[in-house]
Write the structure tokens for this entry.
Amino acid sequence: MAATAVHTNHINGISLNSLTPKNEINQNSNPADVDENCEENQKEVDIVINNVVCSFNVRCHLNLRDIALRGINVEYRKENGMVTMKLRQPYTTANIWNSGKITCTGANSENQAHIAARRFARILQKLNFPTRFTNYRVVNVLGTVTLPFAIRITQFSQAHHEASYEPELHPGVTYKCKDPKATLKIFSTGSVTITAPSVANVQRAVEHIYPLVEVFQKPKTKQDKLEPLPKIPEKTKGEKRKMPSAPNPIAAPRPPPPSMRPAPPSRPNGNNPGSNPVPQNTQNNSGAFQYVPKNRPVLQNDSDDSDESDSD
């Protein structure tokens, strides 16, 4: 027996009645037992519609600069070639292009999305644009459901080929449903996020997935109740592995400056090794360096004198 949707006023959600068939009640049965059976059979889950995206066309060219100058609650994004306009009631945002195409996001129901789209078209009409409200359609609906139990998502992904589970990329299971057309993100905490073309498809997708995940249910922990949607870790760049390398000669410690170096040992004659004798005449007190050559002794040639005496 298919579940019926009842539109309620609590958080703009949709309350689904029993997802299991109701048992027939005998006339002779005890009223207390009947109430217990009804409570067991009437399991309810609330679908909360978070966002409804719609698009329409005004069939005329729009001057974005004129809209930004004369409109209210408008932001002109020249780098993207569009104007962003916001409404307070219903709280929605519209992206306006110069071709006349407009997309509206932020509504909590299809009725609110249609009202917001009409109001955006009326605002443009008051700015002296010949607008015509055409080609309206709901593009996307985002809904969330919190199930009364946790889910063993690893076993669920192995049992269904439609499910894709990559724990390194995303903490939830991605389940693509063809009929009804919808994409579901199933988390181990029991929270399910549904993306579908309409609210009716969101409801049908919940009815389709509920009996499948009920088989893999497990009791909820305290952490699951506090954080229904697990946090997605931020992408961080991994550190490169450092390879051992040869010692860098450039990184070797530099020798101390000459003023800090220790003086070499002196010789008995008073001259330091490798240094020229310091001239005694220091009449010139200027800072210029003056080179003084060494005085080498001249040797007398005794051999020549001895040869001359023999010849005589």
Notes: Residues 48 and 146 are 9 Å apart (CA to CA).
